[in-house]
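During the reporting period the student researcher (J.K.) took over the structure-prediction task from the postdoctoral fellow and processed the backlog of single-chain submissions. One of the processed entries is reproduced below for the supervisory committee.
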Amino acid sequence: MKNKRVLATGRWRNYTEAERALALIGVLAGIPLDEINNTLYKGQRKLGSEPRPLNPISHGMLKTVYLPVLLSPDAIEQIDFKKLWEHCLSPKSVMQLIATKKDKV
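J.K. obtained the following structure tokens:
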């Protein structure tokens, strides 16, 4: 996606809380930047909002600056962020989640 549209001020619009959360989960799950941006774009297009991709510098800063401060390495290792990412893209019902959990026990 090569959309370079910016606001009249010459700046991109701020990310919404949901966009920030999705980008953060994507980075934690090890999702490539292109896939994170494609997912953001699909949601933005659905809502009719101005496209706002995650740029490589922000992606790198999330990984190397923000995450080490926000979460301890132990916390990152204990959570399966790939599952959270998959749930964001294709949510399951509560009954499906319960059944999946019972199958693994």
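The committee noted the following: The mean pLDDT is 85.
J.K. will present the remaining backlog at the next meeting.
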